[in-house]
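User: Structure tokens for this complex, please. No commentary.
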Amino acid sequence: MNFASDNVTGASTAILDAIVRSNAGPLASYGADPLSAAVTERFRALFECPDLAVFPVATGTAANAIALAALVPPFGACLCHEEAHVMTDECGAPEFFMHGAKLVGLPGEGGKIAPAALAAHLAVPARGVHHMPVRALSLSQATEGGLVYRPDEVAALSALAHEHGVAVHMDGARFANALATLGCTPAQATWRAGVDILSFGASKNGALAAEAILVFRPDLAETIAYRRKRGGHLLSKGRLLAAQLDAYLADGHWLANAAQANRMAARLARGLARLPGVRLPWPVEANEVFPILPAALDARLRAAGAVYHPWRTASLPAGESVGEGERLVRLICAFSTSETDVDALLAAAGADGA
Amino acid sequence: MNFASDNVTGASTAILDAIVRSNAGPLASYGADPLSAAVTERFRALFECPDLAVFPVATGTAANAIALAALVPPFGACLCHEEAHVMTDECGAPEFFMHGAKLVGLPGEGGKIAPAALAAHLAVPARGVHHMPVRALSLSQATEGGLVYRPDEVAALSALAHEHGVAVHMDGARFANALATLGCTPAQATWRAGVDILSFGASKNGALAAEAILVFRPDLAETIAYRRKRGGHLLSKGRLLAAQLDAYLADGHWLANAAQANRMAARLARGLARLPGVRLPWPVEANEVFPILPAALDARLRAAGAVYHPWRTASLPAGESVGEGERLVRLICAFSTSETDVDALLAAAGADGA
Amino acid sequence: MNFASDNVTGASTAILDAIVRSNAGPLASYGADPLSAAVTERFRALFECPDLAVFPVATGTAANAIALAALVPPFGACLCHEEAHVMTDECGAPEFFMHGAKLVGLPGEGGKIAPAALAAHLAVPARGVHHMPVRALSLSQATEGGLVYRPDEVAALSALAHEHGVAVHMDGARFANALATLGCTPAQATWRAGVDILSFGASKNGALAAEAILVFRPDLAETIAYRRKRGGHLLSKGRLLAAQLDAYLADGHWLANAAQANRMAARLARGLARLPGVRLPWPVEANEVFPILPAALDARLRAAGAVYHPWRTASLPAGESVGEGERLVRLICAFSTSETDVDALLAAAGADGA
Amino acid sequence: MNFASDNVTGASTAILDAIVRSNAGPLASYGADPLSAAVTERFRALFECPDLAVFPVATGTAANAIALAALVPPFGACLCHEEAHVMTDECGAPEFFMHGAKLVGLPGEGGKIAPAALAAHLAVPARGVHHMPVRALSLSQATEGGLVYRPDEVAALSALAHEHGVAVHMDGARFANALATLGCTPAQATWRAGVDILSFGASKNGALAAEAILVFRPDLAETIAYRRKRGGHLLSKGRLLAAQLDAYLADGHWLANAAQANRMAARLARGLARLPGVRLPWPVEANEVFPILPAALDARLRAAGAVYHPWRTASLPAGESVGEGERLVRLICAFSTSETDVDALLAAAGADGA
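Assistant:
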């Protein structure tokens, strides 16, 4: 009953097999191998973007930090949700790679930036050199709260950003989970909606350690190539990342994995919501569930061996709050989560199944 | 006949198997899993150092840059060989992680810092705030030229460094190859000889992507832990690195691999040296061979499909030079290089075998 | 009627004379001159601190940024008021000099950090390498809202900080104005109350361009010396800064200047408060006045030629707000502000004098 | 007899008077005052460049570091003479402001970059992301050895640089001394010869603390404006810098000062050259003299109270060397150096006058 994160599980069989398969024989190092080239072509086809530049890296923190560094000068600012991963969980990696540029947090329920908050921030007239000019907006898809931006929402936020000379980055650590919900094309969810760079995640959804920085603006490719290398993120044996990403994209494996995780999260949410005293402050749109539990239930689950994290309350909707005897927690389902896993937790919670 | 680098080959069978084996079941993320703990214990035992702090990362550039950043303040300088990997091949990763500290190159044959050059540099009296004070010395073991520092040589350089308040880093991307030659213990080659931090390489010698920053001074552990994370180098699925390192250290696998690579380099060197017009400007002490070839021989080898890199001449001994019709090249053997591979190259070169 | 800032006026006569006087003859450069040494001695006597290290610089931004860089590692965080100058008006200079460390804003009325907010922030248990550890607290004295921390308030905040391994910086751009109000000794207001480094301002209170970084912890002196130089803040003709600071400290000139500015602010506040519809959301404790004005009055003042800035409302006390037809503004008095200046503004406002 | 540097003297009378004159009355802060605007216009007229952007700062180190940061990305390299001030005397300020970009030193006699060395360096084909691409060339005018680049020399180096996508910076700490020798227009010596940014020095030639970053490419102005502020180099009382620069440029004061310094250097050189055992390894072209002195003469001069620095020998012409009983030293004349000063030193040296 480990619902702590979608990174506590290993690789999917398909991806592990691909790592093994790719191991034979000599291959050019540093990403100059044919498998890496094939991955680029897969991404270009998938995103309907022939000029797409693709930079595999091993961690999401690296993908985000390098991407933002390409968009924000050291004296600039990057807007994001006040609870975004880049803001709160990467130990300042973005600030490091951006050389001191500032992350500025915007509010919004469930980790989703409120359009009015963005508009208000951008409406403040530029105040000269004393103030760090906003140069990028980072959207998390899905959000830290497991919500999903619709393409028209992304387009509206991006349009507002671009009007102000602000580039758009999408932190897609859970992009697959978002897309599985949206049902649109990758292009519709990203560059057609105004996204300039996407941190495309795979590690949380079937890979062991593989992400890709997808650059929709060719003018940004060179700076990212150099920044990846000087960040120590260009693997010498590029086949390791390429094999994972190749299998991840093949035959819709990535979306199938994500759909499974999302289904399990929905099942978990339905089961929990039926329990007395449990409520979900915002909907479950991807693979994460954020219930407010009675403290006694929380204790019972933990005693039964369930693993998951308490959660912070900044993203709660207006009017919602966590009472004395309550706990806001986060449960995450992965591609490897089964109905059995979910039902075991629900059983421990005293529910009668999904 | 690919002698371009020891990173053109995949993982050894033992390591690949370990990756597969480690894949099952949920494990705590970010290195909090039992396998990562076991790797730390292996390193502590191997290096006879119970306080050793161990930080796995995926690339050697990351290991070096993070290690140096722990030793050198942003206003300081780090001495290294003028052809060291940190100086010439990492796109400024050390300067990035050190926040602008300067690398200062010292001369020496075959990539080995000449003790007199170090002594002369450190003998210059401190010149106040206009000048960046030297705070670290980085030794490459084996060197970029494939030479190996003896423990007493390391100890002499380290003693000189420490006298001047200068910490000692060892870039051990090919530490296994060096140790296989030295035959001493890991402790004798490192901390007993004055090394403060070791970048312990595995990727070039059987792993796919695994290195470890080994910190012999406990006071430096915390800053490295944070710097690894903010560098984007803390993998969420720590099992990937742990599995590789565990198998690498188990049953002397690492030294067996290195010994094989070294034997093949020696065989290659012997065969080449017998050819007319070929000479080795410095000895082969690890797994790299740097012959000066007649241009015609170089052309013949390449025509036959041999892959290797031309090399720069800065490390040549006094009195040695590369003539008009000659080429200095680098050939590297890996754990996976066989006698058949070596003999095929020698045959193409017109040699009659080893 | 220029109340825009205390930096719109030139130097005091005493300080200008000192610049002229110091100009004759050759002097050792880079602060090695006798006048610079004399300034250090003046500061040591004034602060009753024989080990005090003194680093003159030309701007307050430089003083703050260099000081914070000595206290906070690149992966750390620095707490300050959410409207502190370091947070909002220095274009990221602290982040630049700290190499990407993060500023975290705390709330509080009138720019004064609420002790409960600090306690709450520091009470959150450390969360490992994913989160930037707090390493410094920066207090503005006087605050951006013109309030003054009492020595016991500083001591309480500092004690809390030090308990958590957090060093204390004081941004004393208006330290003289604060001290003129407090009436205590400089030592009581700073190191005896737990301050580790003080940015001691003079430019706003009689100098042309002179601040001093006062370092009460000798272990921090060396890193600041180097960081000042590499920041480009070590003037070659050190006499310029030394002459200003020498005259500033001589004969209580600095406190006399500050007292005059504070008196004028008090007079201005008294006069404005008597006007219908005007209120002061927090008290005037130094040389800055923040009235909420009826919009019509604001317009009348500007039409009469008064110069001052609109102000932001984040620091308003709970329950206070600025209505539709109102404006929160900031008026600053300097050492050179006279009763005539104040009364002219009050007259334009329709007041009948102070 | 202080020939240690041209920064051991105070301001010229004209400039000191200007500081005093500019002190009266309120003026907009941060360079928004009319005097600062007038200085910009003076520079534009002087350099025949209506689009020139002008950024006054207080130190030459700041001017150089900010200028280079505008030209070189953090992953790039900047070529300069191996003994350039930016390389050896600024404690890594350029690397700090450039965020870790590398300075690469080129050889050349008397501090002047040998065109062949530049050509050879740029001729090396780009080697991909492992290597930091060259993005700027910094020329010191006059050089650290007191030599002066002719406009056609600057043009040749710049053309070569621009062909390779390399921008050109000129460190003009002693630009006035160079121009006084050249007799050409400022435009001919700079942008017409391909210079993109000039660090225009005044502090060494009559000002107390005033330099200006002159930006001939308007696209670079914005980044410099922000970088100056975040470097802490935007003075609040901009009048201090503006007054100095205004007086410096007025009525040819700057060139008159430089011409005097140069004349005194020439007189000094002539006198020294007549002494037995003294030789000048390269010509005196500005205000610096680098004689090789017999050790006994060096001792006699110091005993007589002469102040000057020993100098390093890397810039010596091929075939020249400093013998056992000899010393290479540097003597600098300033605008304030008189014939009496020079003749006193020559008399102490045993010369019979100029």
